[in-house]
Structures are given as structure tokens and as C-alpha cells.
Amino acid sequence: MALTVTQRELQEPAFDKPVTLYTLENGQGLSVTLSDFGAAVWSLKAPGNDGIKDVTLTYQNPSLYIANPYFFGVTVGRCANRIGKGQFELTGRRYQLTRNDGNNHLHGGAKGLSKRFWDSWSWQVAGKVGVTFVIHSEDGDEGYPGNFKAQVSYSLDEAGDITIDYAAESDADGPINLTNHTYFNLAGSGDVLGQELTLQAGRYIAVDGELIPTGELPAVAGTAMDFLKPKAIGLEIEAVKGGYDHFWVARDHKAADPELIATLRDPKSGRTLELLSTEPGVQFYSGNFLDGAIKGGEGRALIRHGGICLEPHIHPDAINHPGFPSVLVKAHQQYTQRSIYRFSVT
Q1: Is 198 annotated as contributing to ligand binding?
Q2: Which residues of 108-140 are buried (b: 16+ CB within 10 A; e: fewer)?
């Protein structure tokens, strides 16, 4: 069967205009539905030994994407993850960003790029179908300097690769660090504690009580943070206060081409997700703040550890840590990232 891309509009009164949804299908059971609100993944269905299931977390009520307390599926930025006290200094000037996570700045701010409509269009080339999203952000938006533009393109091929290509630039120096915030549960329901994770990273970033990096990069060996070999997510999670919400360091710099950084496998269904990225590391978050209070797709409760995030990007709070890879992008220079989500069945 051929690759296809289809488009429809969702009339939801809570939004100030219709939401455009695109569905990419590879003709072999893999499909991903994307939204122009937040340049987001709204659904991702993958085949397994138990049939085809949605392997991402979604809201039963689409209007919840407006507030989106869990950042389901969205593109986050201008700067992903946390910035301590929402502050950084640049050329002698201190910038104060929106504080939307206690004392700190998280995922681009209260609205950021994830809670806005993006311009969008679908396309098809030999061997791929895709959708491109574009957004502009004015100087001072959420406290960031410069007029900013970002472009995010999703593509799907017949083999089962979903590729996300990011490009962004600003007319002023400033931090740029984008990622996608999809939650995965390869079983399609229940929790993820029995699913096996491998992270190609020998170090992680230590954090304080507010999850802000201390600057230390301990080795994972001999600790509950060691995922160098496949390990059930729940095996040692109780040894980590609050659960996993840390950044694993795969390398000290961005790579020229995507390299394998994480593998997630559900032993029962055989579904396997490999994450390849140009980024130096990945934030692994084990869904610690999900509490069952909100209903997900098909009315399922969004229970604690009901899904995990694997967010490839540059180190969190890097703008305040000279020893980390830099997130500072000079005016009119381009930021790029490529990440590949590769699905298969074993």
C-alpha cells in the first residue's frame, strides 16, 4: 500500500478557530496524526503482536490541549526543559523569562510555542509523506530576546521511521533548544514499568530539589540511572526520589547525523521504538506527575507512569552552565536538529 497524507478540521468551541489535523500513514499499520496547535503529535498508532494500538498519551477531551498541563505531544521552546529562576545573562544584560514552574522557566514559558497555532501544509516526495509547521515569535515573547522563527517538519516513510526536522533562527543572540514532548506507552494501556529501556549514555545530569542542574555529571554505573543495557523501567525506579526526570548525556556535542540514543521495547507486544538524534542527550521522564485525575484517549485514566517521554535536546539550563554544550545561537544563524523515531516489531 502507498504512503498517504490526509487532512481534516476539528471544530472544537474551546479553540478560537478550527484545529487542522493531518494523518500520515505508511500502508503497513503505522500512522501518526499531527495538529497545527502546538505542532503536536495527537496520536501515533503502531502495529504489534497484539494488533494496532495507539502508543501515545492523549486527552479524551480535545479542549484540554489549550492548557495542556502535561505538554502531551507538543513542540516545546524556544528553550526546552528548565532554566533556573528563569534567568540568564547575555552581553552584560540579565534576562528574566516567564516563571511557569515554581521559581523556574519550563519548556518555553506559560504559552511558549506549544500552546499556539502554527502555519502548516502537507507534502509528499518519493518515499515520504510529511507536514511542515512554521511559527513566529516576537521580541520579548516570554522574556526571550529577538524576533524568532521556527520550522518543524514531520515525515513518515514506508519502513516505519518518523523523522522530525527542526530549524530556527532569531534576529538577536539568544538560547534556542527545541524538542518534542510526546509520551509513549508501547503497550497502549496500563503503566510502562515493565517496558524495557536502553539509553546510550554513561552519564546523567545531577539536579537539585527543583530539578535544576547542579552542573555535576555523575556516571550511571552501579546506580539506578544505569540503562546502558535493557532494563525494566520499574526495576529501580523507587530508588530515584519522585521517579525519573533527568537528562542522560550521550556525548559532549551535537552530532552531524542522527545516532542511536535510546531504545524502548514492550516485551508483551514486541513493539520497539528506537530514537536516533543529532542531540547530545535525552531527557527521560517517567510520567511521575500523572495522577489519574484526567481522562485520556478512549476514556482511559492517565495513571502515574502511564507513559514516558524521551526528549532529545541540548542539556537543560545550558545557558547558565559554561561547561555544558552551548544553546546560544547568534543573530541570523540557524539552529537545526534532526530526530528519528523508528518503529518495529520483534
Answers
A1: no
A2: bbeebbbbbbbebebeeeeebbbbbbebebeee
The catalytically annotated residue of 181, 246, 305, 313 is 181
pLDDT tens for the chain, residues 1 to 346: 699 999 999 999 999 999 999 999 999 999 999 999 999 999 999 999 999 999 999 999 999 999 999 999 999 999 999 999 999 999 999 999 999 999 999 999 999 999 999 999 999 999 999 999 999 999 999 999 999 999 999 999 999 999 999 999 999 999 999 999 999 999 999 999 999 999 999 999 999 999 999 999 999 999 999 999 999 999 999 999 999 999 999 999 999 999 999 999 999 999 999 999 999 999 999 999 999 999 998 888 899 999 999 999 999 999 999 999 999 999 999 999 999 999 999 8
Is 313 in the active site?
no
Residue 93 assigned to a binding site: no
The DSSP 8-state label assigned to residue 331 in this structure reads T
Domain boundary assignment for the chain = 4-345
The DSSP string of 47-115 is EETTEEEE-B--BSSGGGGTT-TT-TT-EE-SB-SEEGGGEEEETTEEEE----BTTBEETTSSSTTTT
Active site (annotated) includes residue 311 = yes
Cell numbers standing for residue 260: 542511536
Of 225, 287, 337, the residue nearest 56 (C-alpha): 287
Q: Kindly name the residue from 142, 169, 196, 311 that is annotated as catalytic.
A: 311
Binding site annotation covers 183? yes
Could you give the 3-state DSSP secondary structure of residue 239?
A: helix
Q: What is the CATH number of domain 4-345?
A: 2.70.98.10
Please state whether the peptide bond connecting residue 338 to the residue before it is cis, i.e. omega within 30 degrees of 0: no
